[in-house]
């Protein structure tokens, strides 16, 4: 089992930070988000509206301490990590960190794939940091404190939309853990694929989340396109293949908008048991994607601007189209924003293709159809309009999150 890792050094502490569960892992999760917070459930860290000043914080104990209702099971545990859903919010904000039970602060990093300094770019992603087991307490009573650097910034602020404490255990702790039995490794996938499981275990399964490893849109915000695709918003799983919550636990995976793949695809499942354990199944590997009659191209943006906040002006990115647009059947822009109710148009090659949708002061995911006339083979330029002043006064504008606006194009083919 291979696992990505990197080393964080902060205040003399060295920690190994792992990138989410790997196939074969066994763990439990403890989830919290600030349901009563503004911006539809955010925790503001830093600045004039810092959570320590606002009072609108769930499970707040004073002195910066949040005491979530976690009843943590450390018996036979082997390691721990914390997943923080972090949004940059105010450009230039640095140094987000968490202290658990009053111990030394642990830094919560920005995505490594974003150019330095990452705080110059709008981003929203799930940061994963390793936690020292000695910092945690068995059962309830674990506190969390957050802060950012404040020196030299007019209003430093990150928004946190949730945290998940994940405790890992040796997989051998369970005799039977479940597995995917169809498809099997080296099978060929088509447009619609049946996925079946062996779930002969006790206690029973409550639900299954399906995830895929492939080259696809980066709706997780870490700048990586080929990976296990899934993300969290307010502790709920998004952008995975699907969830099953009742027997017979069979799933139809429609690959209609999965881009054509130059490498093999993998499948795995998060199997949730009624006793609180979650098992990431062993991966079904080397799957070949073949869909006669059509192809899907993913157009990845480049030359993405810093500070993509539309109240500050127009911003542009570029993307390449390699396919034959005469054979195009459908296309759509896929991307994530914050406060898209302030959009003032998206233009592709000077054609307006979108005006606005979604809320103000909240997270949103977009999948917007695009007509053929706006596109051309080769390089295309996409521009967002400047948000004008509104009569009500304060105008926030839209934050277009990293990696920018991606395009999916479906073509008919002769093969």
What are the defining features of this structure?
415 residues; mainly beta; 12-stranded mixed sheet; 5-stranded antiparallel sheet; 2 helices; 33 strands; 2% helix; flat; disordered N terminus
Structural description of this entry:
This protein is an all-beta fold. The strands form eight sheets. Strands 3, 4, 7, 10, 12, 14, 16, 17, 20, 22, 23 and 24 form a twelve-stranded mixed beta sheet that branches. Strands 25, 27, 30, 32 and 33 form a five-stranded antiparallel beta sheet that branches. The protein has a four-stranded antiparallel beta sheet with strand order 26-31-28-29, with no helix packed on it. A hairpin with a 2-residue loop joins strand 5 (60-62) and strand 6 (65-66). The relative contact order is 0.15. The model is unreliable at 1-18 (pLDDT under 50). The chain is built from two helices and 33 strands.
């Amino acid at each position: 089992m291979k696992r990505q890792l990197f080393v964080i050094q902060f205040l003399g502490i060295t920690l190994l930070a792992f990138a989410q569960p790997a196939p074969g892992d066994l763990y439990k999760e403890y989830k919290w988000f600030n349901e009563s917070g503004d911006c539809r459930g955010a925790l503001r860290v830093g600045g004039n509206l810092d959570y320590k000043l606002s009072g609108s914080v769930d499970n707040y104990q004073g002195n910066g301490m949040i005491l979530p209702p976690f009843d943590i099971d450390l018996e036979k545990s082997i390691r721990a990590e914390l997943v923080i859903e972090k949004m940059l919010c105010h450009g230039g904000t640095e140094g987000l960190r968490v202290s658990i039970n009053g111990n030394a602060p642990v830094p919560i990093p920005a995505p490594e794939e974003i150019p330095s300094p990452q705080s110059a770019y709008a981003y929203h992603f799930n940061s994963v940091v390793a936690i020292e087991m000695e910092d945690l307490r068995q059962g309830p009573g674990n506190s969390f404190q957050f802060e950012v650097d404040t020196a030299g910034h007019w209003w430093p602020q990150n928004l946190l939309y949730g945290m998940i404490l994940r405790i890992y255990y040796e997989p051998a702790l369970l005799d039977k853990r479940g597995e995917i039995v169809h498809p099997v490794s080296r099978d060929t996938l088509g447009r619609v694929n049946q996925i079946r499981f062996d779930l002969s275990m006790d206690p029973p399964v409550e639900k299954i989340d399906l995830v895929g490893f492939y080259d696809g849109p980066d709706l997780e915000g870490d700048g990586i396109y080929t990976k296990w695709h899934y993300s969290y918003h307010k502790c709920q799983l998004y952008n995975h293949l699907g969830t099953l919550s009742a027997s017979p636990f069979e799933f139809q995976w429609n690959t209609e908008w999965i881009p054509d793949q130059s490498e093999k695809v993998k499948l795995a499942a998060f199997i949730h048991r009624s006793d609180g354990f979650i098992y990431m199944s062993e991966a079904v590997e080397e799957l070949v994607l073949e869909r006669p009659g059509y192809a899907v191209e993913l157009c990845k943006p480049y030359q993405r601007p810093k500070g993509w906040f539309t109240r500050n002006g127009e911003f542009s990115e570029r993307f390449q189209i390699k396919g034959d647009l005469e054979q195009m059947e459908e296309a759509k822009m896929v991307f994530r924003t914050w406060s898209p109710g302030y959009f003032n148009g998206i233009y592709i090659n000077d054609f307006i293709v979108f005006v606005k949708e979604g809320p103000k002061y909240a997270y949103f995911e977009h999948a917007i159809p695009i007509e053929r006339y706006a596109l051309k083979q080769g390089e295309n330029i996409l521009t967002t309009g400047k948000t004008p002043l509104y009569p009500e006064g304060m105008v926030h504008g839209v934050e277009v999150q990293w990696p920018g606006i991606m395009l999916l194009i479906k073509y008919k083919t002769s093969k």
